[in-house]
Automatic annotation (TrEMBL):
Residues 486-759 form the RSE1/DDB1/CPSF1 second beta-propeller domain. It comes from Trypanosoma cruzi. Residues 817-1187 form the RSE1/DDB1/CPSF1 C-terminal domain. This is Damage-specific DNA binding protein. InterPro entries: Beta-prop_RSE1/DDB1/CPSF1_2nd, RSE1/DDB1/CFT1, RSE1/DDB1/CPSF1_C, WD40/YVTN_repeat-like_dom_sf, WD40_repeat_dom_sf.
Length: 1276
């Protein structure tokens, strides 16, 4: 099953922040690590200014700023990047002539001395320092940890020299970034140095908490590394290591040789004479919980939750380990136990320390002026304050700002002198849970995001946020809506009603006028207000009525044919209306007719384009014509023909170019610029609905609203337009309020609710987030469609709290909320799941159709204690929802009963086709419970052990059989059969690979079940199981025969850890809906429901299943695009998308130089590499970047894509699915000869296949591919 993986919202967490002069011009910049994005900000007088984002094909783990300056101070900082795939990159930044900032790769490579891949979270220590060479040059050095017990040393200058030796223009690049002398004499002469050196820590250092380099001293080619650790007796010490870099041959010969040369001394000796040696315990018995080291020019600081210890460099070298003169300072007492997480040195001997709760302390180092020891240093707390953040990293800039990076909450900037702060980068926090709210064809994704005070519930959807200010109900049969000045006119069949805004000191009200100069006896077609003349112009079905000074006069009457269409613009002083085939143009200043025109066909719609022009749509011909008025005459300037008659039109300005958007009767919209229309170009048409498209111009937002049962908003962009929705069940008419004294700017008419809504569009973009902050971590959220409510679990200090939220309250999160209904759990009780169930029902569908009295909500909880690794006791409770008797009353949860369970309860699901049964995930087991109606309680039946910790159980509805899919935190997933006759459970199939899964989704396509999930190595997998091979419940023998493993049909490295996954969509309408089939009409080949997911770093994405033909086209385009996209930092897309697993060959172990002489080993290596290749998944983000390239590059990409499509198609000797499974599409195939191609297959066969699937045919054209990709952007 092929898929397209797209990012709907990029990660917002910041994993690291460093500062430096990255542009080499004295401008202080800060660099943020946002997992797969590197962001640069510059410091201004008041705040920080965003410069540019660089998207990398890597998930970064460490980032460091490294100084490369000569003796004159000329140079710059470069950035050290380390990815979770153990790749190292050194990059520099340069401002080009046009002002854009470019990234330049100075080094990229694997850690060659680390042979295997470790888990991404195995170790997290990294620091940088400097050492002085024998030539008195100061060069940077980086040490980092990959696994426990050792560190890796990286010589930056040597790496730049070795990497630059592979390229001819490396000298020119270095001389551009640095001075020529420094580039040639320093950076280019480090080639003989070892790049990576592994140093093993002392065996007594069991728990290494922090490490940092000391300042370089007079000793050449040496650096001091200080390590904070805890030993076996839980005592905390600081040890000192000496690192010798680049020893020459004379120094190497002078070293003492090992007595037993056959035994490697891993503590001291490494290749080329480099030495990593532990000197001694620098400081013994510091604070037991000390967790952070910090150095400055004065000495070393050891930071703990309670104390800060300081040792001066001046006196430390003359004292023993046990008698060092240590200065300590107690931090102010905190209400709870908090640890310091980051710190930085400030000018004037000051230190800034941040604790994990957001508290920061500024400490100063002072010399003792009185006393016996005048050299003693004192520590003084200068200031203490708090920020609303959970800090992880800290970067200091020279202008008085600092940046506090956070994984969990917003990244902030702070003026450390004054205490002023602000938000630099908003972060929604990690995603804990997802639920899908379906409302007809529309769909909303609700996520529980954030930690602590930043926690809450977030509504993610392709719908703009509308702030409701007021509502008028009980309005029936309204057909049109107009607003001008302080007047609002509602048009009904045969008549109109007039309303007026009235201002009071406290509010603005609207009142219907019983008597007014406006004509209420006719249908109103247009209304405009000319403020300079204080005049209203009302166009009715019989003429033009001018209202001024309380009197209305018809200046034009059309009693014979009447007026069908009208468009007026007060700014342009123009009115255009049509009466049958006659079009008239009226000057709003003089009220005189400027010109008239009689057409061959009747007018279907019209709109004003300028002060001298207008556009008209005609019946019958499907023509849309652009006219211009010159000296009282009307001339035709441009014409396009559409596939159907136009019924509405709007003109918007995008990039200072007017664009015409036409809604057609067949559900298409046509898009063309007026300039292209003058040149005779054709319009692009896109199908967006199955009804006629009525458009309304949202002028202030430069967007168009599509009226109807499912309202859509068209947002113009550089690559065409994007589609999103709006928070209304339906919109029949809309009007813009022009009065500046009125806070509301829009009026929307809903026919289904018979109401007018006054308010504002708060945020207009493709994917919107509506956040409801609860100031606590929300661990679980569930939408209950039966009662249109959300059930939410909120994490408190001692116990969890369950809240009930009504559906409309989440969409209108800016409205002050009343006190929510809540249920307090018992002490130490934590919520683990919500599930809907019909008590004693058949559960034939997920929602059930039984009476309301049988519907219930299951709440699963565990009792968690700090001294228990896993809870030993749990329970699940079932509630019913009681609706309030009044509309204003909130629904409430009423407990029906509960059941105690032994073990750690994790998840639950209904058992399909098995009356009254539920399945619980307890520890590593699946337990079956049945509903006993007599006692109104659940009774345990059958239990089966499948893994370690069951994280999710999903039901599968197939005929009269009963199956479930279970996900495990260590053993991937299992396909489980329920024997509904004997009540037994049996594992039908399982995944043979040990993968850690937190959540997943299952959907059926044909006779295949597709199991999608993400593992704890940032990968995405899809496992397949044929429904036809599933055993019958009455045939135990077939169950044994067909039991086996689940086949991996797709695998892909996402680069982020999936924490929640559901079947759903961020698109305005779901793929599976039939009312507005937008996604399936936009993108051919969508063959199943979309899957949405959230990640631990705050990202949201979409997985879209596509057909084999669509995948072949997209994959060829992806590979072609990747060949022209620059590999920033040296990180390549193909390597990035290979799945990540512990134990993969890294470094020297990937060197299979002996394969040529050993045929067996060659096959083993080849088979092993193929296990990790990306398969049947392509990157939607990379493919869509095709739209950003110039025409020349696009043509080059298309020629490469064509060649790859032909190569794949003509190399295929099986079905497309089998071909994808056994071939690597990222590597090119050999082209067949022309004679063989004619003999086997032809381009016509390939085009027939693509044409049947609705894909662009060969030869590929820019226009066809651009349109296809623009449509693809609209489905996620």
């Amino acid at each position: 099953m092929p898929f397209v993986a797209s990012t709907s919202k990029h990660p917002t967490a910041v994993l690291g922040a460093v500062s430096g002069f990255f542009l080499g011009n004295g401008e202080s910049l800060v660099l943020l690590n946002r997992l797969n994005v590197v962001s640069l900000f510059s410091e201004t007088a008041e705040a920080l200014e965003h410069l540019r984002d660089f998207t990398l094909f890597a998930s970064l783990k460490y980032v460091e700023a490294l100084p490369l300056f000569d003796s004159k101070g000329s140079g710059r900082h470069v950035a050290f990047l380390f990815s979770v795939k153990q790749e190292v990159s050194i990059v520099a930044f340069e401002r080009s002539v046009d002002g854009t900032i470019e990234m330049i790769t100075l080094f990229h490579g694997d850690v060659d001395t680390c042979f295997y891949q470790e888990r991404p979270n195995e170790a997290s220590l990294c620091c940088s320092g400097s050492y002085q060479t024998s030539r008195n040059d100061v060069l940077p050095l980086v040490t980092f940890s990959i696994h426990r017990g050792s560190v890796f040393l990286f010589d930056v200058a040597a790496a730049i020299a070795v990497y630059g030796g592979k390229y001819r223009n490396a000298s020119l690049v270095l001389e551009k970034l640095f001075s020529p002398e420094y580039a040639q004499q320093v950076l280019r002469k480090q080639k003989k140095q070892t790049l990576f050196v592994q140093g093993h820590l002392n065996a007594s250092e069991l728990d290494v908490r922090s490490m940092i380099f000391g300042p370089y001293d007079s000793e050449k080619n040496a650096a001091a590394l200080y390590v904070l650790y805890a030993d076996s007796s839980s005592k905390t010490h600081v040890s000192e290591y000496s690192i010798y870099i680049g020893m020459n041959e004379e120094q190497h010969r002078g070293q003492k040789k090992n007595i037993w040369p056959w035994l490697p001394n891993t503590l001291d000796v490494f290749s080329r004479g480099d030495v990593f040696r532990r000197k001694a315990v620098f400081l013994a018995n510091v604070e037991t919980n000390a967790c952070l080291l910090q150095v400055n020019s004065e000495g070393l600081f050891v930071l703990g939750p309670q104390l800060m210890s300081f040792v001066s460099w001046k006196i430390a070298s003359n004292q023993s380990t046990m008698s060092k003169n240590v200065t300590t300072l107690a931090f102010p007492s905190f209400s709870a136990y908090v640890e310091p997480v980051c710190s930085a040195s400030l000018p004037n001997r000051e230190l800034l320390i941040f604790f994990w709760d957001g508290t920061y302390v500024k400490t100063a180092l002072q010399e003792e002026s009185e006393g016996l020891n005048s050299n003693k240093m004192l520590l003084v707390n200068l200031a203490i304050s708090s920020l609303r953040t959970i800090p992880d990293s800290l970067a200091i800039l020279g202008g008085g700002h600092c940046v506090i990076g956070s994984r969990m909450t917003d990244t902030l900037w702070l003026k450390w002198c004054t205490g002023e702060s602000g938000v630099l980068l908003e972060n929604c926090g990690p995603v804990f849970d997802l639920t899908i709210a379906v409302d007809g064809p529309r769909m909303g994704v609700i996520a529980s995001t954030g930690v602590g005070m930043g926690g809450g519930v977030s509504l993610q959807r392709s719908a703009v946020n509308f702030r409701h200010d007021a509502v008028i109900d009980n309005l029936l049969n309204v057909t049109r809506l107009f607003a001008a000045g302080d007047i609002v006119i509602l048009s009904f069949p045969g008549y109109s009603r007039v309303y007026q805004f009235q201002n009071t000191p406290n509010m603005t009200t609207i009142k219907e006028l019983s008597e007014s100069p406006f004509d209420k006896s006719k249908v109103t077609l247009s209304l405009v207000y000319v403020s300079e003349r204080n005049t209203f112009v009302q166009v009715t079905s019989v003429g033009v009525n001018v209202v001024k000074g309380g009197k209305g006069v018809y200046i034009i009457c059309k009693n014979e044919f009447g007026i069908q269409h009208a468009s007026a613009n007060a700014n342009l002083r123009l009115l255009v209306f049509s009466s049958s085939r006659l079009v008239s143009v009226v000057d709003l200043n003089t009220h005189h007719t400027r010109a008239s025109l009689e057409l061959e066909n009747e007018v279907s719609c019209l709109v004003i384009s300028s002060s001298q022009g207008f556009v008209i749509g005609e019946w019958s011909s499907g023509a849309v014509c652009l006219y211009e008025i010159q000296d009282g005459e009307i001339f035709l300037k441009g014409r396009i023909f559409c596939s159907a008659t136009s019924c509405s039109m709007c003109i918007l300005s995008h990039l200072h170019t007017p664009r015409l958007v036409v809604g057609l009767l067949n559900g298409y919209i046509a898009d063309i610029s007026l300039e292209a229309m003058l040149m005779g170009s054709a319009a692009r048409e896109t199908l967006i609905r199955m009804q006629p498209v009525q458009l309304f111009n949202l002028e202030s937002h430069n967007a168009v609203l599509c009226l109807g049962e499912v309202p859509l908003i068209i947002i113009l962009c550089d690559t065409g337009f994007q589609l999103t929705g709006i928070d209304f069940n339906d919109v029949a008419a809309c009007a813009i309020i022009e009065g500046s004294h009125i806070s509301s700017k829009y009026i929307f008419l809903s026919q289904s609710e018979n109401s007018l809504a006054f308010g504002n569009i708060v945020d207009l973009k493709k994917l919107n987030s509506c956040f409801l902050g609860l100031k606590a971590t929300v661990t679980r959220v569930k939408y209950i469609a039966w009662w249109n409510v959300f059930v939410i679990s909120v994490r408190r200090n001692e116990k969890d709290q369950v809240l009930l939220l009504m559906g409309h309250e989440l969409a209108n999160s800016w409205v002050p909320q009343n006190e929510l209904f809540s249920i307090e759990l018992l002490e130490n009780e934590r919520c683990v799941f919500f599930e809907t169930v019909v008590l004693g029902g058949s559960n034939e569908s997920p929602n059930g159709n039984e009476a309301d009295k049988d519907k219930a909500i299951l709440l699963g909880t565990t009792f968690a204690f700090p001294d228990e690794q896993l809870p030993r006791s749990s329970r699940f409770i079932w509630y019913c929802v009681e609706q309030g008797k009044l509309i204003s009353e909130r629904p409430q949860l009423r407990q029906i009963g509960s059941k105690d369970v032994e073990g750690a309860l994790q998840c639950c699901c209904i058992v399909p086709n098995y009356v009254g049964r539920i399945a619980l995930g307890i520890n590593g087991c699946i337990a079956l419970y049945s509903w006993n109606a007599a006692d109104s309680v659940f009774v345990a039946e059958e239990t089966i052990c499948i893994g370690t910790i069951v994280t999710r159980v999903l039901p599968i509805f197939q005929g009269d059989a009963s199956y479930m899919v279970a996900f495990d935190a260590r053993h991937s997933c299992f396909f489980i059969q329920v024997d509904t006759i004997q009540g037994s459970l049996e594992i039908v199939a399982r995944d043979s690979e040990p993968r850690g899964v937190m959540d997943g989704a299952v959907f059926q396509l044909g006779n295949i079940y597709n199991i999608c999930f993400g593992d704890d190595y940032y990968n995405f997998f899809c496992l397949s199981r044929g429904a036809s091979t599933l055993p019958s419940v009455s045939n135990a023998t077939s169950a044994t025969v067909s039991s086996g493993k689940l086949e991996t049909s797709a695998q892909y490295h996402l680069g982020d850890m999936v924490t929640a996954m559901q079947l759903g969509s961020f698109a305005p309408c779901s793929v599976t809906n039939i009312a507005v089939p937008i996604p399936t009409t936009l993108i051919p080949g969508i063959c199943g429901p979309q899957v949405v997911f959230g990640t631990s770093h705050g990202a949201f994405g979409t997985i879209t299943p596509v057909s084999n033909e669509t995948y072949l086209f997209l994959k060829a385009l992806e590979v072609a695009v990747s060949s022209v996209v620059p590999a920033l930092g040296g990180f390549e897309h193909v390597t990035y998308r290979e799945v990540l697993r512990a134990g993969q060959e890294r470094g020297y172990s990937r060197n299979a130089s002996f394969e040529n002489v050993n045929v067996v080993s060659s096959g083993v290596f080849d088979k092993r590499r193929k296990r990790y290749l990306s398969r049947c998944v392509c990157s939607g983000d990379l493919i869509e970047s095709f739209l950003t390239f110039s025409q020349t590059i696009q043509q080059r990409i298309l020629r490469e894509a064509e060649s790859r499509i032909k190569s794949c198609y003509f190399s295929m000797n099986s079905t497309l699915g089998e071909f994808f499974e056994h071939n690597d599409l990222d590597n090119s195939f050999a082209e067949r000869s022309d004679a063989y191609l004619d003999e086997c297959k032809t381009i016509g066969d390939l085009n027939a296949l693509f044409s049947e699937s609705g894909l662009p045919t060969l030869p590929l054209t820019r226009e066809a591919v651009n349109e296809f990709l623009q449509n693809m952007q609209r489905i996620h």
